[in-house]
Amino acid sequence: MSYKNEIESNKVPEHVAIIMDGNGRWAQQRGNDRSFGHEHGVDAVRSVVEGAAEVGVKYMTLYAFSTENWNRPQGEVNALMALLVHAINEETETLDKNNVRFHTIGDTSSLPQEVQNRLNFIKNRLKDNTGLNLVIALSYSSKWEITQAVKQIAHDAKEGVIAPDEVNEQTISNYLNTADFPDPELMVRTSGEQRISNFLLWQLAYAELYFTPKLWPDFRKEDLFEAIYQYQQRERRFGKTSEQIQEKNA
Ligand code: FPP
């Protein structure tokens, strides 16, 4: 059975966020160094981006590099940065042909200049596309993002740009890196770990969480379709009762 055929097209999540985990273990299982796993992780990225576009997902956020990942061995960090530049160079044309727009969240100013240049290039090149919005989280952590937002809100309140009493949930969303994107309805994490790891803490408030033991380099679009199918079997209640939800859907 193909999960793609089982997906209800009117209930596809608008935004899917993914923690791509398990590259290191995948490589170690094959007696290779961790960077080999990251390289194969790009095949998984290609496949899920394609799959997301096929079923009509509008936003896909991929956690590619966390603030904490700077603490990894320098060789691995360098290899990941080089891989990013390489992947952008290789994939720009295909992404463009597939009408994909490209965004980043995170402290991209801390990335090597060459990576920043490539990111600006691809964002600009794909800016008029109207299909899937691909969002890559780079040097990102949710606590960092929320801290930045609080700082800016405090600053704007001091300057009289906003009134402290008028700060509400929407204000906070507007100050996050993700201000232009809807909150994810579905968050997928590979490799069997069941944690959020400082990823989109505010935005995932009502997301369905889906964990799979597959390691990221083995993950393909069919696995994404399965996650979306499983998501569609769940009842999203947003704090209401099951009866209230069923009445509304009747
Ligand atoms: C987590 O696995 C994965 C990463 C830290 C890097 C993810 C990066 C890519 C898939 C490459 C390129 C991305 C794009 C968007 C082109 P891990 O190393 O933590 O694995 P482990 O838990 O088994 O050690």
List keywords for this structure.
Undecaprenyl pyrophosphate synthetase; 6 strands; globular; alpha/beta; binds farnesyl diphosphate; six-stranded parallel beta sheet; 9 helices; 250 residues
Outline the biggest β-sheet: 6 strands, parallel
Question: So what's the CATH class?
Answer: Alpha Beta
Helix/strand class: alpha/beta
Are any ligands bound, and if so which? farnesyl diphosphate
Beta content: 5-15%
Write down the oligomeric state.
single chain
Work out the helix count. 9
Helix-strand sequence: HEHHEHEHEHHEEHH
Overall average pLDDT: 96
Name the strands of the widest sheet in spatial order: 3-4-2-1-5-6
Provide the helix percentage.
40-55%
Strand segment count: 6
- CATH names the topology as Undecaprenyl pyrophosphate synthetase
Q: Look at the structure and name the CATH superfamily.
A: Decaprenyl diphosphate synthase-like
The 3D shape can be described as globular
Query: In angstroms, what is the radius of gyration?
Result: 19 Å
Return residue spans where pLDDT drops below 50 for at least 5 consecutive residues.
none
